[in-house]
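ARCHIVE CARD
Drawer: 12
Card no.: 0347
Subject: one protein chain, sequence and derived structure
Cross-reference: see card 0346
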Amino acid sequence: MTSESKVANTVYIEFVRLLYTARWPIVVVGTAILMVGAAVGYQTGDLISPAIGVAGMLVTLARLTLCIAFDRTFDRRPLDLASAKVWERRLAVGVISTGICVGGFALRCFLLPDLTAHMVASGLVFGYCAGTTTRFSIRPWIVKASLAVSVIPAVGAALWNFDLMHAAQALLFLIFFFGGFELIVYIHDTTKEQLTLRAEAAHLARADVLTKLPNRLRLSEHFDEAAARLQRHGEGFAVICIDLDFFKEANDRFGHAAGDEILQIVAMRLTGLLRPSDLAARVGGDEFIVIQADVDSRDEIQALCGRIVSTVSAPYIIDGNVVVLGACVGTALAPADGTTLDALLGKADAALYAAKRSRGGQQQQPAAVTENIPLAPELCQSRGAGEATNSAARRSAPTLGEPR
């Protein structure tokens, strides 16, 4: 996923989160529908108007309940893209349902002979449209649909009376309805621009410039989120330290540009192995850290480590040259090995370097790169915090300069 798409997704998720902060406007509209429904029913003896008012209040209560459910759900975990789409549709149902109640009330009032009921209906329609446009324009399709179901019935019912003043009233409804579209676009675009700038700044502050992976700051923030889930819900997680073998030799032999390209490919390979709830970060040089979410056993960690070592060790084609690197990993499991980032990184680092030491001098063999002659350095994995095992895959290979 590109940085632009990440920013766009962040902005969209923030849009949805903002939709669920509208609590007081929901209460105001629901109360208004109930009050005017009761007033018109009392004034005219009509039973349908107060029934619509009660329906509007029930929709309001349902929307407030949805907001509470949203808070409780995402108090436990961050809102992601897939969840945001689901919750946007749920909120849209509530907003449009309220618009239907407003439109239904206006339709009923304009069919009554009492002109004061027409006046009340007009006030409710204009007030609802103004408030909805202001509050929900960050999602234009929702507000446009809600305005349509509230205004169109009012226009039709006003024209049904077939006199000059009601025709003028219907024309006003239409003018403000279509005129509101420009305001909707303006509010949406302005808010999107502001959120995009903020998201871009936040992303740049939390991303490694070269690989576009999260940096130490974002790693620390993600760790805090994982630690909070562990404390609240017992969701264990793993910290995996990854160190590339023979990267320095490759960098020295082919130059910094080739080394940068290798690191970028490593970043893409790591990202492709992870779930949305996991995170891979570059913390310096050829060192990477993965936080594996929702882990119950070390077997789950070892399965991911095996995929990491295998994927990172696959050959790299750099400017027509085949470059083969290796990888060492060290792991730590929370809460068994600690509950702080420093403690877990310390355990994972110790395991990683224990794995390196277990290979002795083999780590000092010649550079594992040569033009079109892939060498296969040892790969190592660390099993658990502080326990190192050498699981290298050995293949015979020529040394630098040896003919093919």
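Annotation on reverse: Strands lie at 237-245, 279-284, 287-292, 316-318, 321-323, 326-334, 380-382, 388-389. Residues 3-205 form one domain.
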